Input
Amino acid sequence: MNAYIKDIPVNDMLRKDAMNRFMRDLLTYILLSIFGISMLVPFLWMVSTSLKDTGAIFTFPPQWIPAETTWYASSDGGRCAVRPLGDQGMDRVKVKIIEGSRKDEIVVVLKSAVTKEWKVKVMWRNYARAWKAIPFGRGYINSLLITLCVTIGQVLTSSLAAYAFARLRFPMRDYLFMGYLSTMMIPGVVTLIPVFVIFKVMPDMLNTLFHTSFWTTDLYLGNFYVGKPVGIDSYFALIMPGLFSAYGTFMLRQFFMSIPEDLEDAAKIDGCSLFGIYLRIILPLSKPALATLVTFTFMGQWKNFMWPLIVANSEEMMPLPVLLASFKGLYSTDWSLLMAGGIIVLVPMIVVFIASQKYFVEGIQLGALKG
Amino acid sequence: MKNSLKNSIKEAISGYCFIMPNFIGFMIFTFLPIIASFFIAFMHWDLITPPQFAGLHNFVSLLGFHREGGSMVPNDPDFWKFLGNTCFLMLGIPLNMAASLLIALIMNKKLKGIVFFRTIYFLPSICAGVAIYMLWQWIYNPDFGLLNTLIRKLSFGVFNGPQWLTSTQWAKPALILMGVWTEMGGYNMILYLAGLQGIPPELYEAADIDGASPWQKFWNITWPMLTPTTFFIFVMSMIGGFQGGFQQAYIMTGGGPAGSTTTIEYYIFNNVYVWQHMGYAAAIAWVLFAVIFVVNLVIWKYGGKVIHYI
Output
């Protein structure tokens, strides 16, 4: 037995194994890096463009580092900055002098006398320009307000209903739940049409109903326009339809079903009310599911586009994505400005994601298992 | 007995109280609108004049054909074109899934710094939205964009690269390519990763003893064990694909050139918001629902068979 073991060169085998594993890991890291770079390059391009002078964008070949190129023509007298205007024969070029005492003079010089120099020129000003060009501050406030209201409201209404569907017995419960489920298959655009009509006709209907004109007036908070009371161009319309979710109810109900009932029975014997059970037992035990619903609702709402696009008419009422889209309409070819605006919108999202990515990953896996 | 009856009544009342806030919202913003949109689909309504009953007229002008010069011509050629666009863009789904699976396979190793890579891979799908679509429109710029520059460099100036978003041929592939970039490290990758981590290691150990090659292990263990995940992702992507494509097209191409990137969702948006053809929009929405429903039935009927359960 002993002799048998001794015959195998253990050290050699281990070394070979370790070598193999090292090669495999190296290969994995190389592949991971290739994908990683392909993910990052567009973002870097975005940052690079956002820091360029408008003129530097449309140069060929494009430069990664924002820079300014200047041509200099030198003659025996000295050298001065020029702008090339075009070739003049084989070896000469026509240039316009753009500095010094002979400014605006057009001369023809030898090609070899013209040199190109470039120096780094980072246009931080683009960000200030973007921030001034469009009310991003207001957009942030709108996005935050709408997203917070929708997230809190949806978690609240969904968890209450989910608790009732999971635990309480009442007539029609299962039919109602089936009703919730069956609507989840129907595309969002089906309900979009009547909901749009509701908000479109609501203010006038309310006006005739109450014999006032209040429901179509513009509201101001100090100097700030805060939309109409209801209907198109109101926070009411931006927030209301998001507060209720069949999907959230379904997901939380499935999670609540998996919580053992013993705890609740004990609490019931101790005289705890149903709302107390919901608040003190069910909710604390469902933190992962609630975190999932919160992250998903938050991100979904922050990026929501079509509904706010339809409902928000004035710039003051637009959340960030819609604002950015209208910004793009105004400055359609000013790419450095557009990219700066895009980064202004993206940065907080990236920060929130990096801080909360644990919930994302867990949430996606949980959502798939339950859904 | 009396007490228990009292208790169950009490429970029923609290049950209704608990669901009330959600239920009212559900009725107003989901259930009743579904019913209403069904009726609107049988009307002409421009929101200015009162709605008029139109019978099947919306559906006939949407789906019907008429004879023109001896051949049958659809009443609304745009609808069929946009449905075709939607399906074309859905060719990105298998590409997305393959890319996600590939990344998940590479990620499924206990290596240092894997969380760092996961964060980077996830970034595009988190950021996907107006800003990212703007960025890609710039990347696709035929003259000064990143992609065509790259193509020119790599081919030593031989190829110039297509016109991308401004060409009717290349606009859709461009959107698909962007979709793969935004989605491949996102939700589907995480789902595949979870699926991979759920495969019992004993299976691989047994295969190692039998001397199976990595390729054999993939096709005989990994792929069959992942079929539930693949099926889930496929079904969800199909449902999403049929009712998607608005935002990218709205930002990047405005549905053009010549309607080549307009999807059904975009068509509905135009009908609702731009032209205010409420009845027609509702009819398209219901036809879309029917398409999704039928495709789902087919997937479940034939797809159910390929799933291997543990």
Notes: The mean pLDDT of chain B is 89. Chain B touches chain A through 87 residues (CB under 8 Å). The first strand of chain B starts at residue 43 and ends at 44.
